[in-house]
Hints:
The chain is mainly alpha-helical. Helices cover 73% and strands 2% of the residues. The chain has one domain (6-164).
Amino acid sequence: MESRAKLFGHPIHQMLVIFPAGLLATSVVFDIVHRASGSQAMAMVAHYLIVAGIVGAALAAPFGLIDWLSIPRNTRARALGAWHGSGNLVVVALFVASLLLRLDAPTAPSWPAQSLSFVGAAVMLVTAWMGGELVDRLGVGICDETGLDAPSTLRRDLRTQQARGH
Length: 166
């Protein structure tokens, strides 16, 4: 099933989700380094990574919703997509709560603030697996012309535009 929201022939959601996933996961690494070293700089980096990750999630989510709405009802993909999206809302909520707890002292986050991030990262591992299952196993967002010798998506988009008279 092809994605409804594409850029240069590729699903926008799949292009954007790497940013919040990477930023939020990396914030946990910096929190761990902060806990191990006491470095205030590491805590501040984690703080800003969380901010950027939340912004990235807000940008990626609408494109995921567009794709989810196009999945036929009463399919495993639709149900799994609902769990994936809902789980990612939980992830973002956990990181937002962590961020709110850090606002007064971003260079010295409390255990509860960091614990929320750690739990958020653990939930994100599950939702990331779900996203992989949607794409790799269930074919959500996969081009109908998929194959080892399929033409470039750029060539396909050009043909589509030419056919429309653009």
